[in-house]
Amino acid sequence: MIFLLRFLLPSAGGTVPGTARPALLLGAAAWASAVAAVYLYNGVTDVGEDRSNGSVRPVASGLLPLATALRAAGTLAALAVVLGALVSAKMCLVTAGFLLLGYGYSAPGIALKRTTPGTIAVVIGGGALTYLAGLLCAGLPLTPAVLAFCTAMCLWMGLVGAIAKDFSDAAGDARHGRRNWTVLHGARATALLAAVSAVTIGAGLLVCALSPAGPGLLPPAVVLLGGALALAGVCPGLRQGGTRAERRLPYRAFMITQYAVHLVVLAHPIS
């Protein structure tokens, strides 16, 4: 759902040309297929860590057999490329690029997920490609305000979400050879970095909103900064011996903020 919100955001409030409306629908279907393929494949390659961490993801919990998940991921990836090609050659390339990023994140031998810098690069890249795909399908120009928003949210994904997601899974990640910052430096030190990043990004978008080039940015900027402060508020309470739910709080704050910010933009579009 959050990927579809990102995809649709560039067209929020814009007058989408009649010829672009079918492309927007086809593009959304292509992107949903690509995202599902990437996450299914990730669930297959993460099965060891997920089970060590007590995850209830479908593959790890046994609800979805590994072979079925792999077949579905391959089918959805092929469908995404075909649907992207029906939109345009550029959309096909962007879709393929997103799938390649997802493969590089999870694939044995590459596994960019093993380190935090690798994860940050994939997450920011995937976010940027999602916004770009939405722009291509809507046939709308990229305004300075939309660029500022998309940049802030890509940084939010990479420098906050990609870090906070590991707080609850450090034990299993370490057993399976991951070298993310939570494993290397501990949850508290890494949480401090995530908190500082969150508040900095929120404040940065607010500065953009107050500039002449930022009409319409104020509502999402206020929500983003509020979410950043809430995330920063729960980070100091992290402790290694806490429950998984407690260690998951920063990531939940990150996700809730993401949804809230995008929904605000859909309700009050950026001009």
Automatic annotation (TrEMBL):
The organism's superkingdom is given as Bacteria
Q: How does it sit in the membrane?
A: Multi-pass membrane protein
Could you tell me which Pfam families the record lists for this protein? UbiA (PF01040)
Which InterPro entries does the UniProt entry name for this protein?
Prenyltransferase_related, UbiA_prenyltransferase, UbiA_sf
From the record, give the transmembrane residue ranges: 23-42, 63-87, 93-112, 119-140, 146-168, 189-212, 218-238
- Keywords from the named record: Membrane, Transmembrane, Transmembrane helix
Q: Please tell me where this protein is predominantly located.
A: membrane
- What is the annotated localization of this protein? Membrane
The answer to whether the entry has keyword Membrane is yes
Its protein name is 4-hydroxybenzoate polyprenyltransferase
Q: Which organism is this entry from?
A: Streptomyces griseochromogenes
